[in-house]
Design goal:
Elements: H1 10-14, H2 16-49, H3 54-60, E1 62-65, E2 74-79, E3 82-88, H4 91-98, E4 119-123, E5 134-136, E6 139-141, E7 148-149, E8 155-157, E9 169-173, E10 176-179
Antiparallel strand pairs: 1-10, 2-3, 3-4, 5-6, 6-7, 7-8, 9-10
The chain binds FE2/S2 (inorganic) cluster (FES).
């Protein structure tokens, strides 16, 4: 190591010069990181407010105990402010529904409408103008304008233009349904 006129090692006089650009870059990067963190902190309450509240999330799915619904009985529950019919179909009706496509108004195979042939799960609103149909032995009857549906919820007679609407659901167990989640 050589020594300068001041008596200090030469390297001392030069130490700062090569470091200047590195230090500037470091300060710039640090400023960016701090600014980014500040933006995230400032906007987080806003972003967080856009997520659905936990009570809204819980209402988007409804768990239903189906263990007490006897064969031939319908249980009506509310899901997303709509009635949902959960119909425990008797064996005698299942094969009849499986052998039919419904009517020409909205033909559909029964197997496309049920996950388990014993259980029909449909939105309980007439697809004409939204009245609540009443259960009959052959299916459902809408008292508003006389539409009829079979035990697969398929429209047999108008003015309803569509079958009773399906909804996402899953069997959590043999005795529990979760509505609102496929
Ligand atoms: S609302 Fe059901 S037939 Fe019109």
């Amino acid at each position: 190591m050589t020594t300068s006129e001041t008596g200090n090692p030469e390297i001392d006089n030069k130490t700062n010069l090569p470091d200047e650009p590195d230090r500037r870059q470091f300060i710039e990067k640090a400023t960016c990181v701090v600014a980014g963190a500040g933006i995230v902190a400032a906007t987080w309450p806003f972003i967080s407010s856009m997520n659905p509240a936990s009570n809204v999330l819980s209402k988007s799915t409804v768990e239903v105990d189906i263990s007490k619904i006897q064969s031939g009985e319908t249980k009506t529950v509310e899901w997303q402010s709509k009635p949902v019919f959960i119909y425990h179909r008797p064996q005698t009706q299942i094969s009849a529904m499986q052998n039919s496509k419904g009517s020409d108004i909205d033909p559909q195979a029964d197997e496309e409408r049920v996950q388990n042939p014993e259980w029909l799960v449909v939105i309980g609103l007439c697809t004409h103008l939204g009245c609540v149909p009443t259960k009959k032995s052959e299916g459902w009857f809408c008292p508003c304008h006389g539409s009829r549906y079979d035990n697969s919820g398929r429209v047999l007679r108008g003015p309803a233009p569509k079958n009773l609407y399906l909804l996402p659901y899953q069997f959590v167990s043999a005795e529990k349904l979760l509505l609102g989640k496929a």
